Amino acid sequence: MEHIVFRTRGTCSRQIDFSIDGGIVKEVKFNSGCEGNLQAICNLVEGMPADYIISKLKGINCQGRGTSCPDQLARALENVVEKAV
């Protein structure tokens, strides 16, 4: 299992910590941000394939910022998946 620390850009959350094992996302935690919403995202995506999460979350925009916490998670997962190929 690989543990990842991803520094976010353009969001209230400053960092996402997660683990990935065989393409399955585990133990997701956002550092700061909208606590309730981010806890929900973590609970929903844990145990899911990274590719599926990317397809659902990539491109979500928060308040015209061009990104969001879910989008940043998708970008972090893309980085990991691209390196594995």
Automatic annotation (TrEMBL):
Family: Belongs to the ribonucleoside diphosphate reductase class-2 family.
Protein name, as recorded: ribonucleoside-diphosphate reductase
Annotated EC: 1.17.4.1
Organism: Ruminiclostridium sufflavum DSM 19573
Domain TSCPD, chain residue ranges per copy: 8-79
Membrane spanning residue stretches: none
Name of a matching Pfam family: TSCPD
GO molecular function: nucleotide binding; ribonucleoside-diphosphate reductase activity, thioredoxin disulfide as acceptor
One GO BP annotation of this record: DNA biosynthetic process
Catalysis: reaction(s): a 2'-deoxyribonucleoside 5'-diphosphate + [thioredoxin]-disulfide + H2O = a ribonucleoside 5'-diphosphate + [thioredoxin]-dithiol
Coiled coil: none
Keyword annotations of the record: DNA synthesis, Nucleotide-binding
